[in-house]
Amino acid sequence: MVFGMATSKITITLHDDRIQEIRALVAAGRAASVSAFVQHAVGVALSDAAGWKEMLEDALQQTGGPLTKKEREWADALLSPQERKRSGKKGKAA
Predict the structure, then answer these.
(1) Residue 58 and residue 66: Cα distance in Å, rounded?
(2) Closest alpha carbon to 22 in 13, 36, 34
(3) Rounded Cα gap, residues 89 and 31, in angstroms
(4) Residue 93 dihedral angles phi and psi, to the nearest 5°
(5) According to DSSP H, which parts of 2-87 are helical?
(6) Of the candidates 68, 69, 67, which has an alpha carbon nearest to the alpha carbon of residue 56?
(7) Across the chain, which distance is largest between two alpha carbons, in Å?
(8) Which of 7, 12, 19, 74 sits at a 20 to 30 Å CA gap from 89?
(9) Using one digit for the tens of pLDDT, what is the confidence trace for 16-34?
(10) Contact 37, 25 (CB under 8 A)
(11) How far is Cα 51 from Cα 34, in angstroms, rounded to an integer?
(12) How far apart are CA 35 and CA 23, in angstroms?
């Protein structure tokens, strides 16, 4: 952490087993504190997200530029975590 850097205190929710794992690392001296562990984890996650964004932008540049609106809609529909809506018409005979 950089001295003088502004910080804010927040509340987060984690599964109990994760908290126990973090506390075990602190107890073993592998992390300075729970807060230090979480700060490090967030930094790693942000760096990872930035790396993926850069890699995606590079790939798009090499393959024709940004997605069109139609391509983005297709990708969003394909990657959406929502369940597909089922039609109420099962096996209806013609």
Answers:
(1) 10
(2) 34
(3) 57
(4) -75, 145
(5) 16-27, 34-62, 69-79
(6) 67
(7) 74
(8) 74
(9) 999 999 999 999 999 999 9
(10) yes
(11) 26
(12) 10
